[in-house]
Amino acid sequence: MIVPLGHVFLLAGLVFAMGLVCLVARRNLIMTLIGVEVMMNAAAIAFVAASLRWQLMEGQAFVLLILAVSAAEISLGLALVVSLYRRTGSIDPDHYDILKW
Amino acid sequence: MTLYGAIFYLLGIVILTATGLAVTRRQPVHAVLYLIVAFLGTAALFFLLGAPLLAAFVVIIYAGAIMVLVLFVIMLLQRSPRELRLLSEWGPATLLGVVFLAVAVAMVFKDPGSRIVLQGAIAQPRDFGRFLFDRYWLAVEIVSILFLVALVAIIQLGKRKEAGDDEAERRVNPAGNSSGVSDPTAEQRSIISNGVKEGHR
User: Whose CA is closest to A49, among B121, B49, B101, B1?
Assistant: First the structure.
């Protein structure tokens, strides 16, 4: 009635690939975190589609957990970024070379 | 194509465009604003796929709370790093994404189950809440512990390392901190000396 399941998965896969590219290519730690958020969003879309496909609510329960984990992850990640910025004055991961000798 | 199908493809275009613009913006603030559009589109998609409670949560948590948090942190951190020398860095990453996407698409469409057309259904928020707390209450409790751990870690990270007189000095002269940060070598030296002090303790 709505669309084939594969099309929803295709949408989720495209969004996930965009998040992956953002995570790997960007040199700004905040953009890296945003890439992780985009990937989690794609996973949530796939879970909701699967939940509708099998008419089970487990998929939606799992999306709720994904939401919680991503909220915890972004808040902790941003705290780490601020802490790193205080120490090194930069949010470029290439500048973190204190441990490199 | 039914009306719901048309709405789905429209929402898909909105989500893909907004996400694509978000991951390519140079300014993080613009990226976050585009990402809010993408998350609102996702919320509408969840509503279409029969999850109204999750749609509300996405609007409140993702588009509301998390994005505001990211915006505030972007405003805290002034300096943007050098970005994106084009082909040398986006090339391999895009290749990785394309290969991943090709494999995923091949796997999804090889399965005949992917051609099953979704039937409309809706999980009423009341039923969903009952279901969650009947069967998955342990997972909810585990998530609350996860939040507690994250909270403790964030407070620990946000605390200034030096206690006592250093803190008082900072409070009197907040500008001293920023000038210290602008000189990375001095900052590193102070970190190293702090590490040595802590090691001796």
Answer: B49
| Residue A101 maps to a domain | no
Q: How far apart are alpha carbons A73 and B17 in whole angstroms?
A: 25
ipTM over 0.85? The verdict is yes
B122: helix, strand or coil: coil
| B59: its two tokens | 């609007």
- Tell me the Ramachandran region of residue B118: left when phi exceeds 0, alpha when psi lies from -120 to 50, beta otherwise: beta
The residue assigned the tokens 């204190």 is A98
* pTM to 2 decimal places: 0.80
Cβ-contact B82, A91 below 8 angstroms: no
Non-local (6+) Cβ contacts of B82 within 8 A are A27, A92
Cβ–Cβ < 8 Å for A60, B128: yes
Spatial distance between the Cα atoms of A93 and B11, rounded to a whole number of angstroms: 35
In a domain, A73, yes or no: yes
Q: What is the CATH number of the domain that holds A55?
A: 1.10.287.3510
Residue A82 lies in a domain: yes
Which of B78, B101, B170 to substitute to test the interface with A, most A CBs within 10 Å? Answer: B101
* Domain count along chain A: 1
**Cβ-proximal residues to A79 (8 Å cutoff; 6+ apart), any chain:** B153, B154, B157, B158
Give the domain extent around A43. Answer: 5-89
A33-88: pLDDT as tens digits:
999 999 999 999 999 999 988 888 899 999 999 999 999 999 999 999 988 888 88
Handedness of CA B174, B176, B178, B180 (dihedral sign): negative
- Partners of B117 in beta bridges: A4
The minimum CA-CA distance between A47 and chain B, rounded to whole Å, is 10
Residue B82: left (phi > 0), alpha (psi -120 to 50), or beta?
Answer: beta
d(CA B195, nearest CA chain A) in Å: 12
A80: chain B residues, CB-CB within 8 Å: 157
